[in-house]
Amino acid sequence: MDSIQGDKLSIFVLGVGGGADHVYKGICSSSLLLLKNEQPFCLIDLGLGVVKALSHYGFALPPNVVITHNHTDHSGELPVVLRVEHARENRLRVIAQEEVSSRLQSHRMAEHAQVCNIQELAVWDTAKEGERLYLDKDYYLRFYRAKHSELCFGFVVYRQSAEEDGLPLFAYSADSGFDKSFYDDISVAPLLILDARENGNDWHAGFDEVSALIDSEVFIIGHGIEQEDISNAQTQLSLLKPGQVLELSL
Ligand SMILES: [Zn+2]
Predict the structure, then answer these.
(1) Which residues of 2-11 are buried (b: 16+ CB within 10 A; e: fewer)?
(2) Residue 138: what pLDDT?
(3) Residue 92 and residue 106 in contact, taking contact as beta carbons nearer than 8 Å
(4) Which pLDDT belongs to residue 2?
(5) What is the CATH number of domain 2-241?
(6) What is the pTM of this model?
(7) What is the per-residue pLDDT for 235?
């Protein structure tokens, strides 16, 4: 336990773009890189533009890749990356809730199905909602179902501790509309990264809805909206920018 007390964990923001942003504007999709002791440890979503953003910031692909759902801006680069890395004898570990993983393997990866065994291209690690899934021996996550147009799970990352439930470090909502019980599940973490847009809808929360939650430290993926663009009433929201680093306190 002593060694992990000394770990330094941080989240590097690779992109904050939404569905069409990379296709039409070349902006990196929403993606986060979890760094452990300054080294890439876990990639959170692999939508369009993410590999280029990693190399732009000087990072290698980490061994763990968490995918929240099968939308192009969250998993669009998965087929090419798994195929290329497998050819380089780098079999990535793809972590997803079990039904999301099935969708990725049968739908997202379909372009390779005639020539490859999809199972062998990656290590597909899955968990049911709320179960522990270990990133390594010291850190694990639990998925919780978000409210979205495609089956989608946000999650909480924990550090193993003497207490039964571990120490929650941060949570990511992935894409989600406002859902009280989902936010209750992920609000155990002291730092929340939430999807929100200026005008919410069924599948993406609105700034006004997430403003009400500010018990934890909250950061927003605003999908193209910048801090300068938000109204005075919303200035307590912190909108993430590409290249930003959030230090996690252990
Ligand atoms: Zn989505």
Answers:
(1) eebeeeebeb
(2) 95
(3) no
(4) 47
(5) 3.60.15.10
(6) 0.94
(7) 60
Query: What pLDDT does residue 136 have?
Result: 96
Ligand 1 centre and the CA of 169: distance in Å? Answer: 24
Spans of the chain below 70 pLDDT: 1-5, 214-215, 228, 230-236
- Whole-number Å distance, alpha carbon 83 to ligand 1 midpoint, is 23
Tokens of 135: 């990133």
The set of residues, in sequence order, having a beta carbon less than 8 Å from that of 56 and lying 6+ positions away, is: none
Quote the ligand 1 centre to 23 CA distance (angstroms).
15
pLDDT of 1 reads 45
Q: From ligand 1's centre to the CA of 15, what distance in Å?
A: 14
Parse the chain into domains and list their residue ranges: 2-241
**CA–centroid distance, residue 176 to ligand 1 (Å):** 8
Calculated CA dihedral for residues 179, 145, 201, 245, nearest 10 degrees = 100
If you measure from the C-alpha of residue 14 to the centroid of ligand 1, how many angstroms do you get, rounded to a whole number? 17
Identity of residue 46: L
Compute, in angstroms, the gap from residue 221 CA to the centroid of ligand 1: 13
How far is the centre of ligand 1, averaged over its atoms, from the C-alpha of 72 (Å)?
8
Looking at residue 249, what is its pLDDT? Answer: 82
Residue 92 Cα, ligand 1 centroid: separation in angstroms? 23
The pLDDT value recorded for residue 223 is 77
